[in-house]
Amino acid sequence: MTYDLVVEGATEGISAYIMTIDVGNDSVAGIDGFEHANDPMFDSTQVSNGAVNITTAMGEDAIGASNQTMLGTLTLSGESAGTTAVAIDQSSVEVGLDDYNVSDHEVGAVTGGSLDVSQRTAGVELMASEPVTTGNVALDVVVTGVDGGIGAYDVEIDSNDQSATFVDYELTPDGDSVPFDNSEITDDGSTLSPGAALGDTTHDPAEEVQIATVTVNIDATGTFAIGFEEATIQDTDSNDYAMTTENVSLSVDPGPPTVPGGQGPPQNLGIIPNTYEDVDGDGSLTIFDVQKLFTNMDSPMMDEHAAAFSFNNGDTTEVTIFDVQALFGIL
């Protein structure tokens, strides 16, 4: 954003000028620089501590007489949402006449401005497929309302229970290039921090963007809170969004009972998230699991727990021959 610095009523021209311009609240906006409209012979303009100090003499190329003279352009950048004054310190202003004695114009008044800085708002949430089972559970990390796209992110996700720990993640950038991945999982699995500078794989503006899939291993039944400790998302111009977060509560039921002829309750082996591939409960996936699924396909137990055996990624209200074929296909 820019402001023009204008002197009014300099009807005898301008040979030199001194002034200080600052912002009232440098947490809202900062001054990036000042560009002269003319080409001064002597210039020691400096930007420091949220202000620009302008000290300029035109030498032989004095600015001609005018009722309205533009001295230059002030460039500012927003730092955070809010409002701040952009002011000229009246006590600092000196404007020299177009003569070699550098007599001063009498400065009657200075006028500053008010700068409103807005900040894009986005949200980030965790989404889980149903049902949630013991074993490996996949959670999608989804960012909403990114009207400026996504160029980088740094997110911290925590688990509140040692029975639910992070074991893996996969970033989902756009394009074929590999992003600069700075993600990490703590040694105890309690925290996962997906982070990346996307480079050539930035996400375009969209109402909803999936940036990663994280995998939580749950080894007990109950309810587990998985949530965001912090989240920083930047648009494609490296500006931060103001973030809202939405956590998730995972309710894990005991799962389906032992099928007739099985060795124990079916188990989630983590091959297909949120399903029980080990149908006969012997701890592994074999042709006997496929046979047990086929044999009990129409049983009331299978109907009641159909989603747990939805290997075909389709209908979760009943187990069909397509689920049998899909389980056979992953042997």
Q: In words, what does this structure look like?
A:
The chain is rod-shaped, with a radius of gyration of 32 Å. The two termini are 61 Å apart. Strands 2, 4, 5, 6, 8, 9 and 10 form a seven-stranded antiparallel β-sheet that branches. It is mainly beta. The mean pLDDT is 89. Strand 16 (184-185) and strand 17 (191-193) form a beta hairpin. 30% of the residues are buried. The chain folds into three domains: 2-117, Immunoglobulin-like (Sandwich); 121-252, Immunoglobulin-like; 256-331, no CATH class. It is built from three helices and 22 strands.
Quick tags:
7% helix; 22 strands; mainly beta; Immunoglobulin-like; 331 residues; 3 domains; rod-shaped; 44% strand; 7-stranded antiparallel sheet
Annotate the secondary structure layout.
Layout: E1 2-10, E2 16-23, E3 29-36, E4 42-43, E5 46-48, E6 51-57, E7 66-78, E8 82-88, E9 94-96, E10 113-117, E11 121-128, E12 135-146, E13 152-159, E14 164-171, E15 180-181, E16 184-185, E17 191-193, E18 195-197, E19 206-218, E20 222-234, E21 242-246, E22 248-252, H1 287-295, H2 300-304, H3 321-329
Parallel strand pairs: 11-21
Antiparallel strand pairs: 1-7, 2-6, 2-8, 2-9, 3-7, 4-6, 5-6, 8-10, 11-12, 12-19, 13-17, 13-18, 13-20, 14-19, 15-18, 16-17, 20-22
Helix pairs in contact: 1-3
